[in-house]
Write a structure and sequence with these properties.
Layout (H helix, E strand, L loop, with lengths): L2 H32 L5 H32 L3
Helix pairs in contact: 1-2
């Protein structure tokens, strides 16, 4: 396995982990929003963490797209 293949695999694994964490935070946000006496501070922190994960996910996905474009001939 070349360095490029290992890098691609590492990025793909990171994306999968970030997606799982994002789904978990989605569930926690939904659970908190259903509560009759929701804690707005907790909800705000969860949403901020979810947004940071989404941003990080976008950076890694962009990196994969950039790497894929560089591999194309022409």
């Amino acid at each position: 396995m070349s360095l490029s293949d290992r890098t691609h695999a590492a990025i793909t694994a990171r994306i999968a982990a970030l997606r799982a964490r994002h789904r978990d935070l989605d569930a926690r946000v939904a659970q908190e929003q259903k509560r009759a006496w929701r804690d707005t501070g907790v909800l705000q922190r969860l949403k901020r963490r979810r947004l940071r994960l989404k941003d990080e996910l976008g950076r890694y996905e962009g990196l994969l797209r950039t790497r894929a474009r560089r591999r194309l001939p022409g």
